[in-house]
Prior knowledge:
Chain A is mostly helical.
Amino acid sequence: MATERKVTSTNYRNQSFLEEKCSLNELLDLVSKRWICEVLFCIEEGINRFKSVKEELSYISDTILADRFRLLEKYDLVSKEHFDEIPFRVEYTLTEKGQELCTLLEQICNFSDSLPACKIESKKKTTSG
Amino acid sequence: MATERKVTSTNYRNQSFLEEKCSLNELLDLVSKRWICEVLFCIEEGINRFKSVKEELSYISDTILADRFRLLEKYDLVSKEHFDEIPFRVEYTLTEKGQELCTLLEQICNFSDSLPACKIESKKKTTSG
DNA sequence: GTAGTAACTAATTAAATTTTTAGTAATGGC
DNA sequence: GCCATTACTAAAAATTTAATTAGTTACTAC
């Protein structure tokens, strides 16, 4: 995740242009990052530790998971708590804004289920439950 | 846009995993593509031809704009009409689903405006109107 | 002191997306 | 015929994002 963006590129200029035009573009850039919504939903369901989220989301890597927690915290969607027990543990919980976003995303989820083009994948789900 | 996805990569597997888990992930993958929301909003406002959208969205390229129209059509969010006049013209209009999505995106837009982390950019807007 | 766990980070590599450049078909004007 | 226009497409280069590999710190168990 270390690689910095090239602020002199047209690629960067265009993204900035869109974010300045409408903050929606900034939020979409965030929530469309791979795994991030599922991490958010895990936390909503109480799966709120590094390890448990990692187990829940089969293929996610440590690097990405750490990055997603960091982003969600940065945008004040989740808050992090470090418990100084022995052994210590870290827990993530949704903030009010995070909960609000979950609700909005669930609405979009319902909408996407109603889209014929997204149904191709949904059909597969019925076989496994 | 020609380059095909590598279906044997873990990158591909992970995206598929997410899309099968929830169709939200497929829709987010679509709406987070650069320019696509703005193209959708242009059409909503009646800026509905290739050239007029291109003029409205300063930096967008032909390649991307054509791709975005194609994607929006594929997902039945917009419909394309070719008028056999002389000179011919092509117009895009929102479908019912497209209008529904716009409404949802506008809700998210309001939410993102209320997020402190997205406010940094919003402040800039006040200087220019 | 060696192995193991939780929660991470840094550097590298692989893959995807976006931008750039150049070109197409159909039509009209000169 | 040559240039201009609209609505595109194809191929390549640039940039960004995600995945992989290898490590860290602080602690417990043996």
